[in-house]
Specification:
Oligomer: single chain
Structural class: alpha/beta
CATH superfamily: NAD(P)-binding Rossmann-like Domain
Order of helices and strands: EHEHEHEHEHEHHHE
Helix content: 40-55%
Number of domains: 1
Radius of gyration: 18 Å
Distance between the termini: 31 Å
Number of strands: 7
Largest sheet: 7 strands, parallel
CATH topology: Rossmann fold
Number of helices: 8
Length: 261
């Protein structure tokens, strides 16, 4: 698509006419993404395990948003989220697989099997489930966009987070493989790779209490000198979901202040 073909000069929303599902949309990166997408013309389904969180965000946004409660690691729930999106908004153009968890930062032998399984169900299996649920619809519609929230943890891992790192490495690589396989159907797939952000996961990622001193030690490892903000991820997601990124697929997009350089 030529830059002149984009409706930027007219001030049109960059996602006008699009319908997106944002998982984990009730807080953090997902909430910021849902809010920005609707400001840019999209209709958004906010999928969150916590019904009250999703409903809070959707209510604040208004008619352009619709909240659906569900567990992204459950095939039944994912199917219900996609079905409700189709019922409410009529189609699915964009999926942002944002919902994610971590285990506590600790020696790898101390992470129990239940924590390992939970991390991989939420971070990795959820991507598989949403691909299975939305790709046929996107294929038949002539294309779509899937954005998976990977992590710098899958690019430059920190000790103490081995199993979380592995789950995000899987998301990063899965995104590249999906991009190649789905390209003939004009479905673009990219991974966004933020460094640790100011979200509820931060204390577990650090493995120590979230005090100013401990936070500063973590920040000191990031060249630009701050944590990732939800708005940083939302802005990157907006670009990669928009027609401006029409020729971009299969990238691992660091949002990291130079952490992976």
């Amino acid at each position: 698509m030529q830059l002149s073909e984009l409706d930027i000069s007219k001030g049109a929303g960059r996602l006008a006419g699009k319908v997106a599902i944002v998982t984990g949309g009730g807080s953090g990166f997902g909430e910021a993404t849902a809010r920005l997408f609707t400001k840019q013309g999209a209709k958004v389904v906010i999928a969150d395990l916590r019904a009250d969180a999703g409903e809070r965000v959707a209510s604040d946004i208004g008619d352009a948003a619709h909240a659906v409660s569900g567990d992204v690691s459950s095939a039944k729930d994912v199917g219900a989220i996609v079905s409700e999106t189709l019922r409410h908004f009529g189609k699915v153009d964009i999926v942002v697989n944002n919902a994610g968890i971590t285990h506590v930062n600790q020696p790898l032998l101390e992470t129990d099997e239940a924590s390992f399984d939970r991390v991989f169900r939420v971070n990795v299996k959820s991507v598989y489930l949403f691909v299975q649920a939305v790709v046929p619809q996107m294929r038949d519609a002539g294309g779509g966009v899937i954005l998976n929230i990977g992590s710098t943890a899958g690019l430059r891992p920190r000790p103490g987070l081995t199993w979380y790192n592995a789950s995000k490495g899987a998301v990063n690589l899965m995104s590249k493989s999906l991009a190649v396989e789905l390209a003939p159907w004009k479905i673009r797939v990219n991974a966004l790779c933020p460094v640790a952000g100011d979200t509820p996961l931060l204390a577990d990622l650090m493995g120590v209490p979230d005090t100013p001193a401990n936070r500063q030690k973590f920040i000191d490892s990031i060249p630009l000198g701050r944590l990732c903000r939800p708005s940083d991820v939302a802005a990157a997601a907006l670009y990669l979901a928009s027609d401006e990124a029409d020729f971009i697929t299969g990238v691992e997009f660091p949002i990291d202040g130079g952490r992976t350089v």
